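Hi U.,

Before I forget, here's the chain from the pilot set. I'm dumping it here mostly so it's searchable later in email.
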Amino acid sequence: MTTTPDGCSVDLYLRLPAAGEPEIVHGAVPDAASILELGSGCGRVTHPLLELGHAVVAVDESPEMLSHIRGAETVCTRIGDLRLEREFDVVLLGSHLVNAADSAECHALLAAARRHIAPGGRLLVEWHPPEWFDHVAEGPGGLLGEVAVSLHDVVREGDLLSATVRYRAAERVWHQEFTCRRLSFPELSEALTSADLTLGEWLTADRDWFSARGVADQVPI
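Structure:
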């Protein structure tokens, strides 16, 4: 079983379908907008975005994940180290990466995103809003395609929440531990400002997705 540096099973992620993310992104940006996808994994969101007509550059630190992506340019590196000397209409930071347990990592992610946003472009972010931390609980979490998902061993310590996600498909079971940090809305605004970004708009009614743009850029796409 191949496992990425952050503990993800490549075999598992090949089984997971997109869960509405491509439609959220596509609905928030112009047709054929160029997209830099940070933390693409094996293409769960990349491939639907390609089918929707976007040119995508997929970035991930796992060469094993990237080897499964078809039809998109791929870049193997840690997100915080990314310097392509190119800009994109849209930079995508999904998978709640902005809730990194280490605030320095959060800043590095946002700074990397900002380096690659074209004038008039936007950053689209998926995050855990503060209320998620109040309500998340152990138990079943439904199905992602053929994979049953459940949450276990939830531990809260200050602004940090740790838990284990169990994935089950047929006779296979995977466990993935994670720790994430609660960001209040003022803390989110401060983190964005520190990366020369400003909050744009909420993209979903549950506020799980938002857009941001450069502070000096007054004309979002």
